[in-house]
């Protein structure tokens, strides 16, 4: 038995996994010894010089020497939600008294440091900008006949028989971004697309008539935290509830369904608080390792999944701010977006992009131009369909009857035919 040993899960055969090169960097915990004569190793655990079978095939039966359902569910329900509180969260005035440009400079420095430390350790997880590790496990389970919905994961079908669904979303962090929303709205209107705009509950004044008119046009408004200071997920449950209630009352009259946490900071406590007011949350990236000061910044699953009654809709395309913090040019950002989108489409996965209309991010001509280029690229692909996050939420709920059973993992799979 290997206890809490860090290593990789490799897939020597490409039959089940999206790629035989894919590694699952993970603390495997309890890997049971293989005491079986088998025909083929499907997955093996490697840690330094130790290599042990993790999944084997004997005739038509697969044998797992770990619990794949427990591994998947503990990651998407616990590990990827358990973030540490950053020190500056205790000093909200620092955030309020500094400009968006200063926040961006700090993001650039943190990203550079984080990238350097992960590159030198070689132990970052999930891999970036794409991580197929848990998807390999999921595909293995689906191949064994387990419906993904038994794990609370929705893998399709998508509306209009599309191969992949695209959701365009925006976080409107500051008032300057709100004043600048028309720049990206007009790009979307040009293609007949409708997107989701997430606005902080109490950070700046808004014109409710304007937001209502956007809803009438088919755009969606969501809530983006309270004052955009990132501390809400770490507060006591009663305070979280009071803030969510106040934000919802302020936007009364709009069809609010969803929430996105500022800087994608999240805790299990926040997600359980959201269940009372929202149908979905979209605060978890599939992988986004360069902007946070800990591992596991990502669910590694490019599909929506239930956490209790809440539908979690992961952001699966690198955010504008992340790529700009890594000093990518607009052209390189466009190429990164296209590459990731094509790869997600190969998996029939969900494509969720988040950009910011704030002038420090996508709210400037060079970035609005490549956003238009991206929408042109999407519009030419007949296998893609575009919807808002709210429409996706409605679609998933219509398609599946399972709502909340996913929070209690069902019996472990030891073997499957
Ligand atoms: Zn934000």
Describe the 3D structure.
- This protein starts with 5 loop residues before the first strand and ends with a strand.
- 35% of the residues lie in helices and 17% in strands.
- A six-stranded antiparallel sheet has the order 2-1-3-4-5-15, covered by helices on one side.
- The chain is built from 13 helices and 15 strands.
- The chain binds zinc ion.
- Residues 171, 173, 224, 228, 262 line the site of zinc ion (ZN).
Strands, helices and their partners?
Layout: E1 6-10, E2 23-27, E3 40-47, E4 50-58, E5 61-64, H1 68-79, H2 92-96, H3 100-121, H4 133-143, E6 164-171, H5 175-179, H6 181-191, E7 196-199, H7 208-217, E8 220-223, H8 237-250, E9 258-259, H9 268-274, E10 280-281, E11 305-307, E12 310-312, H10 320-325, H11 330-346, E13 350-355, H12 365-379, E14 384-387, H13 389-399, E15 415-416
Parallel strand pairs: 6-7, 6-13, 6-14, 7-8, 9-10, 10-12
Antiparallel strand pairs: 1-2, 1-3, 3-4, 4-5, 5-15, 11-12
The structure holds zinc ion (ZN).
Zinc ion (ZN) binds next to loops.
Span of the ends, CA to CA = 25 Å
Quaternary structure state of the chains depicted = single chain
State the CATH topology of the largest domain.
TIM Barrel
Order of helices and strands: EEEEEHHHHEHHEHEHEHEEEHHEHEHE
Strand content: 15-25%
Major beta sheet, strand line-up: 2-1-3-4-5-15
Count of DSSP H/I helices: 13
């Amino acid at each position: 038995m290997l206890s809490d040993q860090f290593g990789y899960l490799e897939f020597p055969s490409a039959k089940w996994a999206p790629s035989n090169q894919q590694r699952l960097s993970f603390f495997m915990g309890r890997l049971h010894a293989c005491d079986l004569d088998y025909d083929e190793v499907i997955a093996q655990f490697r840690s330094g010089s130790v290599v042990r079978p993790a999944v084997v095939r004997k005739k038509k039966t697969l044998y797992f020497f770990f619990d794949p359902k427990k591994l998947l569910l503990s990651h998407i329900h616990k590990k990827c939600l358990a973030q540490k509180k950053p020190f500056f969260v205790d000093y909200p005035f620092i955030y309020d008294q500094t400009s968006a440009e200063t926040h961006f400079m700090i993001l650039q420095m943190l990203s550079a440091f984080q990238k350097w430390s992960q590159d030198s350790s070689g132990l970052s997880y999930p891999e970036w900008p794409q991580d197929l590790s848990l998807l390999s496990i999921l595909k293995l389970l689906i191949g064994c006949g387990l419906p993904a919905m038994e794990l609370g994961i929705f893998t399709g079908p998508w509306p209009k028989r599309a191969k992949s669904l695209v959701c365009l979303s925006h976080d409107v962090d500051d008032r300057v971004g709100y004043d600048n929303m028309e720049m990206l709205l007009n790009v979307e209107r040009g293609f007949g697309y409708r997107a989701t705009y997430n606005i902080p509950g109490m950070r700046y004044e808004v014109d409710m008539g304007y937001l209502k008119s956007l809803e009438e046009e088919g755009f969606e408004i969501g809530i983006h935290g309270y004052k955009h200071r990132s501390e809400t997920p770490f507060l006591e449950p009663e305070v979280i509830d009071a803030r969510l209630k106040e934000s919802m009352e302020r936007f009364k009259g709009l069809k609010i369904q969803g929430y996105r946490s500022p800087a994608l900071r999240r805790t299990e406590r926040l997600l359980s608080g959201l269940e009372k007011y929202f149908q979905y949350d979209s605060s978890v990236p599939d992988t986004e390792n360069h902007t946070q000061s800990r591992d596991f910044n990502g669910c590694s699953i490019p599909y929506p999944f239930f956490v209790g009654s809440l539908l979690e809709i992961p952001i699966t395309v690198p955010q504008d701010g992340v790529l700009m913090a890594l000093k990518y040019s607009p052209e390189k950002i466009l190429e990164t977006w296209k590459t990731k989108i094509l790869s997600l489409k190969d998996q029939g996965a969900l494509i969720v992009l988040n950009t910011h209309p704030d002038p420090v991010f996508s709210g400037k001509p060079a970035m609005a131009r490549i956003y238009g280029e991206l929408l042109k690229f999407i519009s030419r692909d007949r296998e893609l369909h575009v919807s808002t996050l709210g429409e996706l939420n409605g679609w998933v709920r219509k398609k599946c009857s399972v709502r909340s059973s996913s929070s209690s993992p069902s019996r472990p799979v030891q073997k499957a035919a």
